[in-house]
Amino acid sequence: MSGGGSQTSLRKALGAIKDSTTLNLAKVNSDYKELDVNIVKATNHVEHPAKEKHMRAIFAAISATRPRADVAYCIHALARRLSKTHNWAVALKTLIIIHRALREVDPTFQEELLNYGRTSNHLLNLSHFKDDSSPNAWDYSAWVRTYALFLEERLECFRVLMYDVETERLRTRDLDTPELLQQLPALQQLLYRVLGCQPQGAAVDNFVIRLALSMVASESVKVYKAINEGSLNLVDKFFEMQRHDALKALDIYRRAGQQAERLSEFYEICKSLDMGRGETFIKIEQPPSSFTQAMEEFVKEAPRASSVDRKPKGILAIEHKKEAEVEAPAKPPAEPLPEPEPEPEAVKVEAHVAEATPDLLGLNDTLQEVSELDQKNAMALAIVPMSDEQECNAPSSFDGSAGWELALVTNEPTKSSIKLGGGLDKLTLDSLYDDAVRRSNQIQTPASYNPWGPQGSMMAPQTGPDPFYGSTMMAAPRNVQMAAMAQQQQQMMMPQHGSNPFGNPYPYNPILV
Question: What is the DSSP letter of 445?
Fold first, then answer.
């Protein structure tokens, strides 16, 4: 027993020496001497709450009327005090200063704390803190870590909600569905940290821990009210939600019921500790289980967002057509037309394709139009239509094996398919006329000069039987005869100067020389 008392006295003496050394350094080296002195005195090693005058001096230094540089320096000094200490009393007193500042100072201090956490290491990260100076210090250290987690979650909740639940009016009753689904989980996470602050072991009887716990318990009332009002608002909107929102809302509602049960137990513990605020704790009532079952049934049958207001394109086209017919003015009834005979489906398909495809090359001309063009030609003698046998032999485009291109090609007549009188086609008749013109030109011109033969040789006219003798007895067309007469007159007008067409037409005359 005496050994334990001597160790306690030694720790107190060492703590007093550390505090005095830190005060002397603050008075000599600091630019904010008064602020540093108040911070050291408010967070000394004495296991008692800090004096109120030191607390008020710190709160005045971080108020909204002070420059932002002073506020930033105060936050930096508190963070340095937390990071360097290994004593539970110093750490807990520093956290109490921050907690009271969040409650009693204007919201600008919370914004400065958030900005400090973004630019440097987090101020409230005490996950590795421990004080192993005594067995009781282990329990104290554990509660200090949970208290730091609560303060860290309080800042995060302020960042999500954009207002302080403890000091401002609750707004969860008037929120829309997206904001509810975002803010209620943050409030429930904060309430989860509240429930984690339940003291264990030696921490239950510590006076400084009870002081901090009383502030946590008082804030839990406002947090639960915010969750309760938000849950009522969520229930009002639940049966109008889509399935993915309804699933989130159902999880929030279930968690709210579980936390309400644990919060009732937490309040009972606080009342047993005789904190002096037991009368302010509210009574927690559990929601009926039948309502939870109704919500679960709704989630199973709730519509999905991807399947709402979607109809097939065919149905939309038909409805659009019906609306157009309704909006069109009424026309007088016409006389009933006779019903046409039903055509095969393949014929309807071909007709639809022909109408949809523009005929740019004129391939859809019928046989009758081609016949009319041929009748206007002076060279055509007679037009004989195709026989029934050839039409039957022509490939059908409606049997399903050929497309509409083959049907268009087979319907277009060619030169060889047009038969003339005597069993001849147009190509054979044209070749006979060309040969007749060539023969008549050779008969009328008896001889001509051959420049590639022997010197002075003439090309003799062709002798012997003419294979086209029968065709030369027929008179040539008038335009061919006129062309032949013009060629003969041109040849007669050309002068004859010997047998050499390349010779000098003016012979040598020595007299002129």
Answer: -
Nearest to 42 by CA among 71, 3, 83, 81: 81
Give yes or no for residue 353 having a pLDDT over 50: no
Q: What pLDDT was estimated at residue 251?
A: 92
**Four-point Cα dihedral 24, 26, 30, 31, nearest 10:** -110
Q: What is the Cα–Cα distance from 45 to 334, expressed in whole angstroms?
A: 107
Q: What is the rounded CA–CA span in Å between residue 201 and residue 205? A: 8
Tell me the one-letter amino acid at 356: A
Position 282 confidence tier, pLDDT thresholds 50, 70, 90: confident
The most confident of the ranges 141-155, 226-240, 406-420 is 141-155
Reported as type and span, the H/E element at residue 459 is strand 458-459
Structure tokens at 457: 């040789």
Lowest mean pLDDT among 42-51, 59-68, 308-317: 308-317
- Amino acid occupying residue 205: D
Rg value, the chain, Cα = 56
* pLDDT (average), residues 222-249: 90
Q: Which two tokens stand for residue 213?
A: 């716990």
Question: End-to-end CA distance of the chain, in Å?
Answer: 167
Q: What is the mean pLDDT of residues 11-24?
A: 78
Q: Concatenated DSSP letters for 99-113? A: HHHHHHS-THHHHHH
Q: Residue 119 pLDDT more than 80?
A: no
Amino acid type, 365: D
**What is the pTM assigned to this prediction?**
0.58
Q: Can you list the alpha helix ranges (DSSP code H) found in 85-206?
A: 88-104, 108-119, 135-161, 177-196
User: Which residue type does 513 have?
Assistant: V
Check residue 449 and report its DSSP letter: E
The answer to whether residue 233 scores a pLDDT higher than 80 is yes
Q: What per-residue string of b and e applies to 58-87 under the rule 16 or more CB within 10 Å gives b?
A: bbebbeeeeeeebbebbbebbbebbeebeb
The per-residue b/e assignment along 252-278, b for 16 or more CB within 10 angstroms, e otherwise, is bbebbeebbeebeebbeebeeeebeee
Rounded distance, CA 220 to CA 165, Å? Answer: 10
